[in-house]
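quick one before i forget lol
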Amino acid sequence: MERQSPAAGRCAAGAQAGAEPGELLQRAQEFKSQGAQCYKDKKFREAIGKYHRALLELKGLQPPEPSSSASGAAGPRGQLTAEQSQSAESIEIDCYNSLAACLLQAELVNYERVKEYCLKVLKKEGENFKALYRSGVAFYHLGDFNKALDYLKEARSRQPTDTNVIRYIQLTEMKLSRCSQREKEAL
């Protein structure tokens, strides 16, 4: 019996040419749910893997690139019902949001990646509180205090009493104050 490499197995799972959109959505939902359970169990690395697997399943729904669609064959995403399309987008948003949450739990946080995932969420759902807050946190730790403050204030406009948002706004304003103080002293 021929053995597949783990990478080949992963690719085959998500991007099977014959997989029905409903099957891909079902598997993506299952991986997302497993990721949520891992997150609750504080198994963040496992959760990250599950969320990535869910996103891989969704990739199987995407239409082919414009150059390859010249043959006129529609990709699976073109065959999605409105409900399936909405479900796919919802799963994608939840996965990227959850990936950012997992990354923030790491000992060494990759704030660049947190920012990237949150911006993907905000591109599709611009008023998502968690993505706004996490973007603010990421920009803060990346040293872009003006952008951090913008995202954090937007998050505060959604949930004015959230203590984490308020605390990060205070930290960011202190950093900005120190920066402007140093600039004045340099002149």
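fyi Helices lie at 6-14, 21-40, 44-59, 82-104, 111-124, 129-141, 145-158, 163-186.
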